[in-house]
Amino acid sequence: MRRQFPRISELRPLMQFGRPGLDRRAARLGRAADIDDLRTIAQRRTPRPAFDYVDGAAGQELTARRTREAFAATELLPRILHGTAAADLNTPIAGGTSALPFGIAPTGFTRFMHAEGEDGGAAAAAAAGIPFTLSTMGTRSLEQVAEVSDTVGMERHGVPGTRWFQLYLWKDRQRSLDLIERATAAGFGTLLVTVDTPVAGNRLRDVRNGMTIPPRLSLKTVLDASHRPEWWFNFLTTDPLTFASLSTSAQDLQTIIGSMFDPTLSIQDLEWIRSVWPGRLFVKGVLTAEDTRRSLDAGADGLVVSNHGGRQLDRAPVSLKALAEVRAEAGPDVEIILDSGILTGSDIVAALALGADFTLIGRAYLYGLMAGGRQGVERAIELLAEETRVAMMLMGAASVADLRREGRVRAPWL
């Protein structure tokens, strides 16, 4: 092998050194290549009780694991020489159009994960042109989220942001009605009624961590804070963590949820919600043909196939596997949203190819939020959008409708 001295003229084009930036958060998030990288950053920067509340599930966490296994077992079939120049990710859903085939799922206690909480999530969603769903157990009010969503939506796109509201039916029906009326007044056009939470799931990580709202300071939490100073600084120097629908005293999650949710929720209650809600209504937590039919007969416009991310009934059906049964009973014209377990763009494509019209992200969004507030959520959306686009291009799908029409997917349970 002959050697020679390197030529400066050949080296010069290779020596492209970027200027060091002062925004360390942006640099950190920019190095994240996927949602798992954001999860790693989140775990490093968030106290264990908050991180485990997001990362964990109910019981032995079998449903959560099986959900991920189902996505991993699904094959996406490429189509060669297809001549598709681009992939259009715009997706019609709930009477509007989302710029991407996914939106942000409702999550509770969100400002416990990061001080920016729903503000960061709603702003990132409005900027991306996708729906943001506020939870009944959210830490920002309907009106506050509406203000953020409208402001960012108008700045970026010249239209208000799309926002949905998720409702748990309380024991106090009047308070439920008050929330419904406030949601209508604040421009929340779609209501997601969650029906799989008559009682709280047995989330063992939260029990072991002694998670309370607000968190109690102990020697353990002080030591945890010592290497996560930014989270604690934000927590202690921003407005107190409160929930309009909950007690402001320190209680464990089981007590809070037990005092709020109604285990006597029935199909008649769903019919009552339908009678007082003027917008589109989706029932969230449907996993069987029987519950599909009951929900539609009660007046639902659409369905969210969801096992609550494995956070309620452990050993519940996997949402992705239940999708075919729900679609067969609902028919082709009912809008179906797939929720639970989505962490990659390929997961989104698999759900759409198996019959979903739209998807929701929960943990993926919160990993981004914990990793870097609104910037982290924007990074999560960016990563999932690009992964979705690449998968669609490789499959020869020019649009989301192509994915459903061609059904280029294999799943071992079908």
TrEMBL record:
<feature type="domain" description="FMN hydroxy acid dehydrogenase">
    <location>
        <begin position="27"/>
        <end position="413"/>
    </location>
</feature>
<keyword id="KW-0285">Flavoprotein</keyword>
<dbReference type="InterPro" id="IPR008259">
    <property type="entry name" value="FMN_hydac_DH_AS"/>
</dbReference>
<dbReference type="GO" id="GO:0016491">
    <property type="term" value="F:oxidoreductase activity"/>
</dbReference>
<protein>
    <submittedName>
        <fullName>Alpha-hydroxy acid oxidase</fullName>
        <ecNumber>1.-.-.-</ecNumber>
    </submittedName>
</protein>
<comment type="similarity">
    <text>Belongs to the FMN-dependent alpha-hydroxy acid dehydrogenase family.</text>
</comment>
<dbReference type="Pfam" id="PF01070">
    <property type="entry name" value="FMN_dh"/>
</dbReference>
<dbReference type="InterPro" id="IPR013785">
    <property type="entry name" value="Aldolase_TIM"/>
</dbReference>
<dbReference type="InterPro" id="IPR012133">
    <property type="entry name" value="Alpha-hydoxy_acid_DH_FMN"/>
</dbReference>
<keyword id="KW-0560">Oxidoreductase</keyword>
<dbReference type="InterPro" id="IPR037396">
    <property type="entry name" value="FMN_HAD"/>
</dbReference>
<keyword id="KW-0288">FMN</keyword>
<dbReference type="InterPro" id="IPR000262">
    <property type="entry name" value="FMN-dep_DH"/>
</dbReference>
